[in-house]
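Dear U.,

For the methods section draft, I wanted the exact inputs and outputs in one place so we can describe them consistently. I've listed the two proteins in the order they'll appear in the manuscript figures. Please don't edit the token lines directly; just add comments below if something needs changing.

First protein:
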Amino acid sequence: MNLKSFINNKYTLVGSIVFYLTGVYLTSRFATYLPCEGSPGILFPSAERWLSSSLSNHSVNSILILSGGILLLRINNLFSLIQKHTLLPFLFFLLLEVCSPSLSLLCNGNIMAVVLTTILFSFFSAYQQERAQPAFLMMGIISLCTLFCPEFAYYIPLFIIGFAQIRYFTLKSLLGAFIGFATPFWILIGIGIMPFSGLSALIPDFTFHIPETLPFNDPQFWTIVLTALLGLFSGTTTLYTTFNEKRQTRAYNGFINLLSVYSAILLIIDYRNYTLYLPVLNMAVAMQAAFFFTNNTKKYGVVLFYLILTLYTGLFVWNLLPV
């Protein structure tokens, strides 16, 4: 099949949804995996503990992931990251998510991916702006999310670096970011709902150590490796492809590349909690891969596209096999 038929074909959208929902169902029935165990938030339990029913858990998570895929399409349509109308971000995001059984259940990582995708609307809109409101809004959202997932705060340095990339690094933006992040805590501590000592949960607590052996017999390990390689390859080619594009397009795609690398680094450092960062990596790599394949529809691009689909499908089937 011609790769162009995947890019704008309405059946790509329908087929992706059917494939994802079927994959979630098969995963719930046949896959053997450990559920995510998120760390408790400053005030609220982690998302893994919100829903006790397996059906409601899978259902809510599926709606969340489908919404995240739609947000990626909307971002591309509004800010022209890929320079073309394409449905591939949606396809790749659902593909990467369904190949990780632990991500079929509602977890902090999936919520983090969708929330950060939502924040990108305000982030990209702040290009060359001098107003403090976008920074206040972005950091305010992150601050609220730390109440159930402290690891949200780990992405603050990335967005501050991103401010410079989108030419938004000003005194106003930094003050807006600081006030936006501090305001929810200031209110909660001030009215006595949250103790000041609760802020200690924001301090990174990585227990990094080099494992004696790598889990070569675990399909999840190879899924992460394949996703990292796909992001590295797509991100590198994106840098060359956007070299002659306007500065704004380079800045947007450059930040997606940074988000991908940053999430991969966090995943390696805190690999015991990989489900926190893998969905964000999936989101960033989905945009990177979509950029590459939308702009490379020649024979080698078609062969590589079907090879990627085959590899991920094989990993998905491997997850369903009995241990």
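Second protein (the one for the lower panel):
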Amino acid sequence: MENFGRNDYDLDLGDFNVLWAGFTPILVPSNFTHEEEKYLLASQLTLALGNSSVDNVLKKYLSDFGENESSSEKKSDIIQEVINFAKIECEILIKKLNEISFDDNGTTSDFAADVTFRRLTTTIKSIHFHIKFGYYYESLTLIRLFLEQLAYAFTISQTHVLKSSDIVSPTRSINHLKKVLPTCGKLYGILSKYSHIDISTINKYLTSFEQQPAIIKHSIIYSLESALFYLNVLEYQNIVFEICFKKYLITFSAINYNSKNESFQVNDPNPQFMKLKEHLLETLKNHR
């Protein structure tokens, strides 16, 4: 399927870190080493200070750059690990999708599911940005949207020819997905509850500083919670994908598919997902 238009702004901001040169933010790739970040920052400070020598700026202002990693940076590293893992998982699915040839066997339901999964890449990039930079409520809303779209793709894949009566809202589709993934209903309820600012979640947005009320606008610690929810939905994505396109796929990892009677069973959780979840839970436990 062809994408129209330029892709100048088709960025996954989860792939970037922010360096500050004075009051100027600079986006740098997250895989930059401390040494690369240091030299880039030194070059910008050299220009700002009117100094002709980058080496002088390095020695005078950045001699200990990156030596003392903060607790916040360590938590950001874990979040980056989740984002990198998610990108690989999503790229694998899109590669599989590109290899599918619907030909004369494709149905309107197949096409609708195909469009849904391709459009999800944008939602996922938005989730990465909000998790990476600590926008807790906003990230939960997007993760809920992610789950709704998966439920929608699953629901429309269950019919061969879409009619107006078959088209249900993404939110109502959750009830259909619960029949295969019972835990998704509970998760959807949690996401719906915590993606709204109300008195029950006051501790997530109001604190005190020097005996004065203070507003929490973003938090890397809370992003760890978002990342945990995100991993759960990401795992659902693999399952729903294989269900939607089971008649076109050759190999399966998330489900056990019997092509003779077109039945399937959901497999046990992927060990990679479980390992990341345990890592996140342990980090949350240590930083609360």
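Candidate sentences for the figure legend, describing the second protein: The mean pLDDT is 85. The two ends are 46 Å apart (CA to CA).

Thanks,
Y.
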